[in-house]
Amino acid sequence: MGFVGDTLDSIRSMQIRQVLTQIISLGQLLLTHFLAILIDKVVILSVDSAGCMIVTSALIIWKGLMVVTGSESPVVVVLSGSMEPGFKRGDILFLHMSKDPIRTGEIVVFNVDGREIPIVHRVIKVHERQDTAEVDILTKGDNNFGDDRLLYAHGQLWLQQHHIMGRAVGYLPYVGWVTIIMTEKPFIKYLLIGALGLLVITSKE
Questions:
Q1: Among residues 25, 73, 82, 91, which one is catalytic?
Q2: In sequence order, what are the residues at sequence separation of 6 or more whose Cβ sits closer than 8 angstroms to the Cβ of residue 192?
Q3: Can 127 be counted among the known catalytic residues?
Q4: Is the CATH number of domain 79-172 2.30.30.240?
């Protein structure tokens, strides 16, 4: 039960919206990879077994990444140009969340109360409260004129540790455009899924 039990406990502890968001994001990121493999090789699988293998593999990979990185969302896609020239729209970021304190200058991905899409920006100020020892964090996009206080929840001036999803520790340029295109133009996503299913069916002996 060890790994399976930990996985189920982890999923139960997460909000439904977080689980769905992660599954959708992971599926979109893995779709191109699996499609390339299927095109390159003759796959002798039934639709049911192929679907089960893809879903199982995706869950195992995602859970493994969560454990290794310490982040609930180990891979994110840059959706805007606010961090140019360092990161451009469509880049994929790899996150890691350690117990080390957040420092000024680090690039972090964070959630904002009331917003579903996480944001990747740079930490420009860190303030530790003397009375509670809590850390206040202020962020800003490298390509933006002002800090992010207008993006935070109404009346919120600082981020806290629980808002931080992870630090950016690596990236792949442009790979995330697949996710952006399929999100902005859903019919392309459905075409790819249909092509994947058709390829699996026609590949059976």
A1: 82
A2: 31, 35, 182
A3: no
A4: no
Kindly state the DSSP code that residue 149 receives in the 8-state scheme.
G
Catalytic residue among 25, 73, 148, 163: 148
Residue 148: active-site member: yes
Q: How far apart are CA 145 and CA 153, in angstroms?
A: 19
Q: Considering the candidates 25, 91, 121, 163, report the single residue annotated as catalytic.
A: 121
Three-state DSSP class for residue 90 = coil
Return the domain boundaries, the chain.
2-72+176-202, 79-172
Peptide bond into 85 cis (omega under 30): yes
Q: What's the pTM?
A: 0.64
pLDDT in tens, the chain (205 residues): 554 555 555 545 545 445 545 555 555 555 554 444 443 333 333 344 555 555 566 667 767 777 777 777 788 899 999 999 999 999 999 998 888 889 999 999 999 988 888 999 999 999 888 777 789 999 999 999 999 999 999 999 999 999 999 999 989 998 888 888 888 888 877 787 777 777 767 765 5
